[in-house]
From TrEMBL, chain A:
Belongs to the binding-protein-dependent transport system permease family. This is Sugar ABC transporter permease. Residues 69-280 form the ABC transmembrane type-1 domain. Its main location: membrane. The keyword Transmembrane helix applies. Keywords: Cell membrane, Membrane, Transmembrane, Transmembrane helix, Transport.
From TrEMBL, chain B:
SMART domains: AAA (SM00382). One of its GO terms (cellular component) is maltose transport complex. The keyword ATP-binding applies. CDD domains: ABC_MalK_N. Transmembrane segments: none annotated. The keyword Transport applies. It comes from Roseibium aggregatum. This is ABC transporter ATP-binding protein.
Length: 290, 332
């Protein structure tokens, strides 16, 4: 199969696709890099000039940047913890035989099909609203003061909303991993004297390690760029309390019309994402081998 | 000690009765083989003894104590699975030590037992490998190692050799027999292969559709099968069955005669027939002979018979080794 001839042919035949993808990536990236070195404000068209690293210096010394960086990491980490722990627990439950299993599984997967803006609005207006929200009614019913989630715990609220969206994805992947576990291994460990907890720690969890790795990697990619949920709920506020890097770049370029500064922020975000990726691959990438 | 007795044990999966009421005594130190065609309930019976399935009714006693409701881990039995069921993410050492770790045994004692098990099973050089890096026979040995470190009252084997190639199967068969000699622990072994049953067992239990057809030593079953099913299942090549007029002469509905008890001649004999296929094995020759008015007969002759396809031969049954069955298949 893999003769020298067939390898050359294979390379030749995939090259159009590779070139197209490369161009698709390289053109916007180089334009962004180019803009990031310009003083480029939408309110002053035609005044663009080369200013070197000034945009980067302003972006990286802005106190908002450090707040946004911390928020981004908290958001990604918080959602990952909730979805992995919750997803494993749900997968274990759904793996048990019970009546109506098919319908329950579809219900569990449903949140994944709701678009982020809609789910954020539903959470904001129907659950977390301090006057009309369900949580406010519940609090009043037991005689408590309603809690204004988005004003007093904006980041935690957004973590909750995003985790609710991603929980089905984690559950689905972890459930399929759980179902691929050889039943004889579980029976063997039962004969070997392992109780439920030991079976989970020594047999089930190692078996699921690869699936958990996949969930962490895929979710991290998407969670670094959470945007819609912030835009429709808190607008990054109060102050910078719920601004992440993505939202900060948006605010810089489109609220302050500073395209140059926004581009510099975008490049910083790309670099940060790559640093996170390298760390992730170092830590858990070895699970994907073999 | 490993005396196991089953009293009126039944097992049903929903409506399907897999094992109708069954009684069985297994003595301490015996090598018992459950044998039968696939779907006869032999694996289910083993899983009932292991505790991996609950009995529908009846009692399982281990060493005189009622173990029917005891969870698998506390029955003091160890099981070797058909797929070996090794833990893929653990080294061989950790696989073998797993039951000891679960029993919270101290590390030094664990190490001592693992080392001695590895020595018995020739696994010392492989202790730090993962199961994925081992051959089929080595994995089989690891599975056995994981069973013996627990020093169980009895070993349960569920078709352990069916994933191995023919040559390895013969080797492992010998190793398991030797292991039984040296440990002298009760072993219960499930197989569909009557050769494994004949070569390894002290006592064979022939199962058919969840019922015990016959229990006895290998040669008992070979010499005096209780019915037509056992007669046909034990022995290779299969026993020939002849019914109709020829059987009537011997006062039976069906007569059975093993291929090795048919005398072959090229000049004279009771039945005349034509050779359809001749299999020359060197030590033996198997002939498949078409005789008028009968099903094809299998004949086994020792050495190299100079007989080929299409030859006319005469066959005479050895009257001493003739088995007679009535209409319901029972031996007369």
């Amino acid at each position: 199969m893999a003769t020298a001839h067939s390898r050359v042919a294979a390379r030749f035949m995939i090259s159009p696709a590779v070139l197209l993808l490369l161009g698709w990536m390289i053109v916007p990236l180089s334009m962004t890099i180019y803009f990031s070195f310009l003083s480029y404000n939408l309110l002053m068209p035609g005044m663009e000039e080369f200013i070197g690293f000034t945009n980067y210096r302003f972006f990286l010394t802005d106190p908002a940047f450090f707040a946004a960086l911390a928020n981004t990491l908290l958001l990604v980490g918080g959602v990952l913890v909730i979805t992995i722990v919750g997803g494993t627990a749900l997968a274990l439950l759904l793996d048990q035989p019970f009546w109506g299993q098919g319908i329950v599984r579809i219900l569990v997967i449903a949140p994944f099909f709701v678009m982020p803006t809609v789910s954020a609005l539903v959470w904001k207006n129907m659950f977390m609203n301090p006057v009309n929200g369900l949580f406010a009614h519940l609090a009043k019913a037991i005689g408590l003061e309603p809690f204004d989630f988005l004003a007093h715990a904006p980041l935690a609220s957004i973590i909750l909303i995003v985790a609710w969206q991603w929980l089905p994805f984690a559950t689905l992947i972890l459930l399929t991993a759980l179902q691929s576990l050889d039943q004889e291994q579980l029976e063997a460990s039962e004969m070997d004297g392992a109780n439920f907890g030991n079976r989970f720690i020594y047999i089930v969890l190692p078996h699921m390690a690869r699936a958990i790795t996949v969930v962490v990697l895929i979710q991290t990619i998407f969670l670094l760029s959470v945007f819609a949920e912030i835009l429709v709920t808190t607008n990054g506020g109060p102050g910078y309390a719920s601004t992440n890097i993505t939202y900060l770049v948006y605010a810089q370029s489109l609220l302050q019309f500073d395209v140059g500064g926004g581009s510099a922020g975008g490049i910083v975000a790309v670099i940060l994402a790559n640093i996170v990726a390298v760390f992730l691959m170092r830590m858990i990438g070895k699970n994907l081998e073999a | 000690m490993g005396k196991i007795s089953l009293k009126n044990v039944t097992k049903a999966f929903g409506e399907a009765m897999v094992i109708p009421s069954l009684d069985l005594e297994i003595e301490d130190g015996e090598f018992v083989v459950f044998v039968g065609p696939s779907g006869c309930g032999k694996s289910t019976l083993l899983r009932l003894i292991a505790g991996l399935e609950d009995v529908t009714s009846g009692v399982i006693e281990i060493d005189g104590r009622d173990a029917t409701e005891v969870p698998p881990a506390r029955r003091g039995l160890a099981m070797v699975f058909q797929s070996y069921a090794l833990y893929p993410h653990m080294s061989v050492r950790k696989n073998i030590a797993f039951p000891l770790k679960m029993a919270k045994m101290d590390a030094a004692e664990q190490e001592r037992r693992v080392t001695s098990a590895a020595k018995i099973l020739n696994l010392t050089d492989y202790l730090d490998r993962r199961p994925g890096q081992l051959s089929g026979g080595q994995r089989q040995r690891v599975a056995i190692g994981r069973a013996i470190v627990r020093e169980p009252a009895a070993f349960l084997f569920d078709e352990p050799l069916s994933n191995l190639d023919a040559a390895l199967r013969v080797n492992m068969r010998l190793e398991i027999s030797e292991l039984h000699q040296s440990l002298a622990t009760t072993m219960i072994y499930v197989t569909h292969d009557q050769v494994e049953a004949m070569t390894m067992a002290d006592k064979i239990v022939v199962l058919h559709a969840g019922r015990i057809e016959q229990v006895g030593s290998p040669l008992d079953l070979y010499r005096s099968p209780a019915n037509r099913f056992v007669a046909g299942f034990i022995g290779s090549p299969k026993m020939n069955f002849i019914s109709g007029a020829e059987a009537g002469k011997h006062g039976a509905h069906t007569i059975g005669i093993r291929p090795e008890h048919l005398a072959l001649s090229t000049t004279e004999g009771a039945w005349q027939g034509k050779v359809a296929v001749a299999e020359h094995l060197g030590s033996d020759t198997f002939l498949y002979v078409n005789v008028n008015g009968m099903d094809p007969l299998t004949v086994r002759t020792q050495g190299e018979a100079g007989i080929h396809h299409g030859d006319t031969v005469y066959i005479s049954p050895d009257a001493e080794h003739l088995h007679r069955f009535d209409a319901s298949g029972k031996t007369i």
